[in-house]
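Morning. Coffee machine broken again, so started the prediction first thing and wrote up yesterday's gels while waiting. Chain of 243 residues, entered below exactly as on the submission form.
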Amino acid sequence: MKKSIILPLIVLLGTSCSAQFPKVLQDAAKQVGAGTGAPLSNADVVAGLKEALEKGAEHSVSVASVTDGFWQNARLRIPFPPEAEKMKKTLNDLGMSSQVEKFELTMNRAAESATKEAVPVFVNAIKGMSVADGFAILRGGDHAATEFLKDKTTPELIAKFRPIVEKATQEVALTSYWSPLAGAYNKTTLFTGGQAINPDLDAYVTQKAIDGLFLLVADEELKIRQDPLARTSDLLQRVFGSK
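Came back before lunch.
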């Protein structure tokens, strides 16, 4: 991990143990603030870390939640459920490729709608960051903060996303697409001996939406750690700018 990341976190972690390590904290703060005209305070460093996480999370949501945020992004695009790939091939062979594509588009639209609700969940988790959380980030790798957010927010994201996904699939009649597709495929299994399927589509779309969102959060964390141009405020530049 780069010195520019380690030093701020040392200062952050020291907020609860400065009586034990006063000189270490003072030296770290001076080094972090070197070249800026004034050393950073512990409060500055904590605020900088939280600002970095909030900016990364908010930008990720803004990318994922727009129209085509999932659909036109090859890394995020939600495919036909893997357990139903045989069904997809069979339906395409039967000339139903347009229905299959429309079904896939609908799943991605549902994910785009759901991710709009993620910002307050992320912000609440960031505000609740503890000293123990800081130690975990300090000892982690380039995506340690992303893993922190994933651990702290996934249950709440599922709870918030699933109803939105369900509503979105109902509004665009996703189940009306899926039922005929699944029904048509299941009829073929009577002759092919294949296994009939009935996956929980709302759970599938919900999880894929969360996976895609955290992929973007990880990208943003790496940028802030490594790219000076990604530090878009004076505080971020001061906290993450020392070498």
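Residues 3-240 form one domain. Going to sketch it on the whiteboard this afternoon.
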